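Need residues for this backbone.
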């Protein structure tokens, strides 16, 4: 079995969700996962994203990835979407292979032959911070950008999830309304739940709209990596 390192803390709820789902999948397969975990500061990471300091963000995250490698990890994953804005910087210098959530999303979109999708996540993600990376992996897919007021609403709702780790009925209803508008107005086929902390309130079964849980995709790939000799 391979050892996978997780850079936690970039969304505590997402880190817990990843851990629980990885453990459950491995238990169902009759194996015990070999994991190591470190804790990064989400506020520091978000601050570097807001400042556009991608090199500094990569430097910060690489300190944790290097610690994971020293602890025995043979691959590493960031259980958060927004920090993947600097994934190219990280991959170029990481001491171990990265399990890239953006590449995983691209593979799924191509397999489903989707053409028009939208993203729910942080303001930075919805404004297009990952669009270049995703276009590289799935160039035939058009990412539809929500209206500015919709981006503001989703971004604030997501920030509340990060801060409280609890859902809010008004936020949930608003997200469903925006998803319906994107489908009807813009012809969006599915919404990517591209903020891993959205797992606190939504999954593909209970979202109330066509959705792809990118955390689930990422976790599936992590488990497959764990099972490799």
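Answer:
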């Amino acid at each position: 079995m391979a050892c996978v390192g997780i850079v936690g803390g970039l969304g505590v709820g997402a880190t817990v969700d990843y851990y629980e789902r990885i453990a459950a999948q491995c238990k169902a397969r009759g194996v015990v996962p070999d994991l190591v975990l470190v804790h990064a500061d989400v506020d520091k990471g978000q601050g570097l994203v807001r400042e556009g300091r991608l090199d500094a963000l990569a430097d910060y995250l690489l300190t944790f990835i290097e610690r994971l490698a020293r602890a025995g990890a043979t691959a590493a994953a960031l259980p958060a979407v927004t920090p993947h804005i600097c994934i190219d910087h990280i991959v170029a210098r990481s001491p171990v292979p990265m399990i890239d959530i953006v590449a995983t999303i691209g593979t799924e979109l191509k397999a489903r032959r989707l053409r028009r999708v939208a993203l729910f996540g942080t303001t930075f993600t919805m404004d297009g911070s990952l669009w270049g990376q995703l276009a590289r992996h799935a160039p035939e897919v058009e990412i539809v950008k929500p209206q500015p007021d919709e981006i503001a609403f989703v971004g604030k709702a997501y920030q509340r999830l990060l801060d409280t780790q609890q859902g809010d009925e008004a936020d949930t209803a608003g997200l469903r309304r925006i998803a319906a508008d994107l489908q009807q107005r813009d012809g969006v086929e599915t919404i990517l739940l591209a903020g891993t902390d959205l797992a606190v309130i939504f999954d593909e079964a209970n979202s109330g709209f066509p959705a792809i849980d990118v955390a689930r995709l990422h976790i599936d790939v992590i488990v497959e990596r764990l099972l490799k000799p």
